[in-house]
Amino acid sequence: MRLRNTLKAFSGTISIQESEKNELNISWTNNDSFAQLEVNLTTYYFNIRYSENNITKELNF
Question: Where on the tree of life does the source sit, at the highest rank (predicted)?
């Protein structure tokens, strides 16, 4: 929740990419800030990549 409330990308443009029927891929961009969510709905695996202060970070669950 903290990421959603503080990352500038979420105040920008949202884009939903075409993907396989069991996957979801959503990106948010705002100038040099971005966030990307990739979800596999079959395995419940998800990956979050985002930039914060020009440093890219990644979370996997």
Answer: Bacteria
